[in-house]
What we know:
alpha/beta, two-stranded antiparallel sheet, 13 helices, 14 strands, globular, binds cobalt (II) ion
Amino acid sequence: MRDSWTPRSWRAFRAEQQPRYDDPGELEKALGKLASLPPLVTSWEIERLKSQLAEAAWGKRFLLQGGACAESFEGCRADVITNKLKILLQMSLVLTYGLKRQIIRVGRFAGQYAKPRSSDTETRDGVTLPSYRGELVNGIAFDQKSRRPDPWRLLRGYEHSALTLNFIRALVEGGFADLHHPEYWDLDFVAHATRAREYQQMVEKISDSLNFMETLAGIQAGQISRVDFFCSHEALVLPYEEAQTRQVPHKEGYFNLSTHFPWIGMRTADPGGAHVQYCRGIRNPLGIKIGPQMTRDWLMDLMEQLNPEREEGRITLIHRMGHLKVEKLLPPLVEAVIDSGHPVLWSCDPMHGNTETTSTGVKTRRFENILSELEMSFRIHHEMGSFLGGVHFELSGDNVTECIGGARGLKEVDLERAYESLVDPRLNYEQSLEMALNIARSLSLINGGG
Ligand code: PEP
Ligand code: CO
């Protein structure tokens, strides 16, 4: 029952993927402090995002969600944050051009500090320690002290989120939107792309449209409309989420005020589990990752639990099937949603179903497989009378070498050059921009072709 829900009711249910803290008193102290600190986001922002997501579900807008697999405290730096905003902004402009729709920009940032793991422990050379669960929980170094889940890290996670968000808000208010202009983009890679000519033309047209718009309005593009960025993270470590879940004056219900857009990961989407029971009661829009194991009944159960009132903008289903499986596994789920009449926004995460390990044991993903899952997904939705209204990437605004392929033709041997991710491999700056050019191209083809 919604009525009897409280931010702590999840505690009566089975909670997967939780750190095991060895000192409950210390944990309560850290949580008490966290609960006393001001929120990171506001309910107005959350509601604005929800109404924009509702519009994306019927094609008025398009969702671009992206960022690191896991943020690190070390990566809470001006250059890293600026570059991440820059790539998201540039991708969104390419998408606006190709889709003729406004883009909702959501970062996997300012709180993406916790990771689900396949095992609770890790063993190396006969030594077994708790698995690394992200900076919110423990440290990555393989020693007893680092791997001990430390409750005070919950506070450090909150603080790093606040620092990140503070800088993002300042950039957004300032002259950052200059980066709209392709003159400021690093486009050298385009010359190496198979579709170099086509991409060059797209970029020229984007530049022309901006100049035209600015001349017409007599002001700079950045001033015409404020560039919004929302933040998101996986709602994984439930005591953290609980401590930032609040009521606000003159509004019913509770909001998770640590982020605009929490999502439920694939490993914690059990309808009877604690994560779903927690998310049921908050008013934020929710993402749900759906992977190859998802069934029609399971999905419908989630819909009924999480959106019994069928509120628009509430649910974004983020499918991540993998390029080899999407064609078979996605259609029954799309059909189930159509039959049920549930309002959802569909988004595609083409990263998590396409992870592979090289012969030397490095986790990577191939540009062509990522793109292929995306293109198939757009087509499947289109053919079924559904609509793919968003994309979800793990990306970096820097020149990392974690994914194979793209215009520069990154190969396995290149991976060691700048592999920085603590967890999953991300598209780098050029690969991300090239991905956006590809999406814009295929979507203008789909739309143009009716
Ligand atoms: C992630 O988004 O980093 C993740 C772990 O995804 P999933 O839950 O889809 O595996
Ligand atoms: Co990941």
